[in-house]
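TA notes, week 10

Several of you asked for a full example with nothing omitted. So below is the full record: structure tokens for the whole chain, then the designed sequence directly under it. When grading your own attempts, check the secondary structure regions first.
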């Protein structure tokens, strides 16, 4: 590989200008967020025909809506007449979308239904639907889309690793379904978006950035992950390929339900329901393992009891938004516990993301003023080291790379796929 991104993204380091160069941001919005699969939301958010939510695909606003036939539609949030934004609220329920500029109305499938004072138009209405995503797909209720339509099958994008992460999360529900009924909340952070795939899957910083959390919540289950030193720790950092990475914390857990901070007797009906669905052996395994901690390129973070999106705003601004895992078919007490846990970890006054946000903003400041190295060379300032654990990670026959939980195996997973996408869609 000899292109611009191959010069900036090496196996063991990347150049800091990747976080600050506005020209690179523009190319990312096209090659990654327009021509590739992007995570948008969940089918439970648009359960009934007419339900809609507004979401970003890169910098474009789209309406994610269930049409009359029950199909999922992803429509540009932009009137087909002169481009006025159609929906200003975040969600709603309607039988059609009417533009307030000149009153055109569109069906839930994006077709143009009515034109006011139509005698002045000689174009066929059928030729003027809302723009729509070229491909829409879902996996276990997780909805993905891309505008270009040439991103290939969703199953290939997710890969075995990405599908497995989603399935492990959904299998925690006694019905096999989770829902996003807790709503979204998030942080607007003055950092480049790529610091979040990095930070969300970084197992090296917990003992430092999150030291205050570890002190304040002494029996939290990260203890086993981060305390006890490098040599004792058995958790793993995994590169599943295709930009899918995982911090596999399961080997460190010392008891079942550590991830939920409770014991079997307090949630007996949930445990019984899980066993009824999966059988005892698998149910016991799920109760021990809990939800996964993984990142699916480019913007979906499965953060144990949270699902988060990384939505770029501009080269130096990102929205990191999340919703609490909610299980279908369980007592509301359990779902409320999951919401409280999510608030404590990722919410505005929480222990985890606010600390990560400070670091991301300081990194962004640190990268200010960097220029890409001249002539694709690797000399000069501004390189970020990502070599940790390269020499000791192992590689399976299927290409999966496995390192120590604190190794930068996960970061290299993101950047290797980033380089591939940015070069192959040039
Ligand atoms: S811009 Fe929407 S009807 Fe004219
Ligand atoms: Fe963190």
């Amino acid at each position: 590989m000899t292109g611009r991104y191959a010069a900036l993204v090496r196996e063991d380091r990347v150049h800091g200008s990747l976080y600050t160069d506005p020209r690179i941001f523009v190319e990312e919005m096209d090659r990654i967020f327009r021509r590739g699969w992007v995570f948008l939301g969940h089918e439970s958010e648009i359960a009934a025909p007419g339900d809609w939510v507004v979401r970003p695909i890169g910098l474009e606003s789209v309406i994610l809506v269930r049409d009359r036939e029950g199909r999922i539609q992803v429509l540009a949030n932009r009137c087909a007449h002169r481009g006025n934004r159609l929906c200003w609220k975040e969600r709603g329920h309607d039988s059609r979308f009417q533009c307030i500029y000149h009153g055109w109305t569109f069906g839930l499938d994006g077709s143009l239904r009515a034109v006011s004072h139509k005698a002045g138009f000689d174009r066929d209405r059928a030729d003027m639907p809302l723009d729509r995503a070229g491909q829409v797909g879902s996996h276990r209720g997780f909805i993905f889309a891309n505008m270009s339509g040439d991103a290939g099958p969703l199953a290939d994008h997710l890969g075995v690793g990405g599908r497995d992460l989603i399935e492990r999360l959904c299998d925690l529900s006694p019905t096999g379904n989770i829902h996003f009924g807790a709503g979204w909340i998030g942080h607007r952070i003055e950092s480049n978006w790529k610091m979040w795939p990095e930070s969300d899957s970084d197992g090296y910083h917990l003992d430092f950035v999150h030291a205050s959390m570890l002190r304040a919540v002494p029996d939290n289950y990260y203890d086993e992950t981060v305390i006890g030193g490098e040599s004792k720790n058995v958790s793993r950092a995994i590169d599943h390929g295709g930009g899918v990475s995982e911090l596999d914390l399961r080997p460190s857990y010392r008891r079942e339900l550590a991830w939920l901070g409770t014991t079997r007797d307090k949630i007996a009906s949930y445990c019984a329901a899980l066993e009824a669905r999966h059988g005892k052996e698998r149910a016991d395994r799920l109760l021990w393992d809990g939800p996964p901690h993984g990142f699916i390129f480019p913007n979906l973070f499965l953060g144990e009891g949270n699902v988060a999106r990384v939505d770029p705003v501009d080269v130096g601004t990102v929205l990191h938004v999340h919703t609490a895992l909610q299980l279908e078919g369980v007592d509301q007490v359990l779902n409320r516990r999951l919401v409280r846990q999510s608030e404590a970890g990722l919410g505005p006054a929480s222990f985890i993301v606010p600390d990560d946000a400070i670091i991301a903003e300081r990194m962004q400041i640190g990268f200010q003023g960097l220029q890409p190295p001249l002539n694709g060379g690797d000399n000069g300032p501004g390189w970020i080291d990502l070599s940790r654990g390269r020499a000791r990670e192992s590689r399976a026959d299927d290409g999966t790379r496995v390192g120590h939980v604190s190794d930068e195996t996960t970061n290299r997973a993101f950047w290797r796929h980033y380089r591939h996408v940015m070069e192959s869609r040039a």
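Residues 79, 81-82, 84, 99, 101-104 surround FE2/S2 (inorganic) cluster (ligand 1) (CB under 6 Å). Use that as a sanity check on your answer.
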